[in-house]
């Protein structure tokens, strides 16, 4: 079953290669969407694909790369829309 997840990660998550790692994990899982830094210091992800694969991405988001210090992960689920072709870093 395909789904969409909007994920907001807070903590020390900018400047530690968090987005780059998210892209690598998402692509490996076959997900589509994007990730970006938010002006408030958080990282945002919008991802689509198989729900089980999205759950794996969310699990990774709770730890991130070695230098990250994740404090909170917020997830909102919604219906799959199929609007992305790949997974990338955006602004």
Secondary structure layout:
Layout lengths: L1 E11 L5 H12 L2 E6 L5 E8 H11 L7 E11 L7 E3 L2
Parallel strand pairs: 2-5
Antiparallel strand pairs: 1-3, 1-4, 2-3
Shape: globular
CATH class: Alpha Beta
What is the mean predicted local confidence, pLDDT? 97
User: How many helices in DSSP terms?
Assistant: 2
Q: Give the structural class.
A: alpha+beta
What is the CATH topology descriptor?
Answer: Alpha-Beta Plaits
The profile of the biggest β sheet is: 5 strands, mixed
Strand content: 35-45%
Low-confidence stretches: none
H and E order: EHEEHEE
Number of domains: 1
Order of strands, main sheet, comes to: 4-1-3-2-5
**CATH architecture title:** 2-Layer Sandwich
The gyration radius over C-alpha positions equals 12 Å
| Helical amount | 25-40%
Distance, first to last CA? 29 Å
Total strands: the figure is: 5
Structure description:
This protein has about 90 residues and is α+β, with helices and mostly antiparallel strands. The protein has one domain: Alpha-Beta Plaits, CATH 3.30.70.100. Helices cover about 25% and strands about 45% of the residues. It has two helices and five strands, in the order E-H-E-E-H-E-E. It has a five-stranded mixed beta sheet with strand order 4-1-3-2-5. Strand 2 and strand 3 (about 45-50) form a beta hairpin. Helix 1 (about 20-30) runs antiparallel to helix 2 (about 50-60). The longest helix has 12 residues, at about 20-30. The radius of gyration is 12 Å and the shape is globular. It starts with a strand and ends with a strand. The model has no long low-confidence stretch (mean pLDDT about 95).
């Amino acid at each position: 079953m395909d789904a969409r997840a909007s994920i907001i990660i807070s903590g020390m998550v900018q400047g530690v290669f968090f987005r780059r790692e998210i892209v690598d994990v998402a692509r490996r899982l076959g997900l589509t969407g994007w990730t970006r830094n938010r002006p408030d210091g958080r990282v945002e992800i919008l991802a689509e694909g198989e729900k089980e694969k999205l759950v794996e991405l969310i699990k990774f988001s709770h730890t991130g790369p070695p230098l990250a210090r994740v404090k909170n992960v917020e997830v909102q689920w919604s219906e799959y829309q199929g609007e992305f072709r790949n997974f990338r870093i955006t602004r």
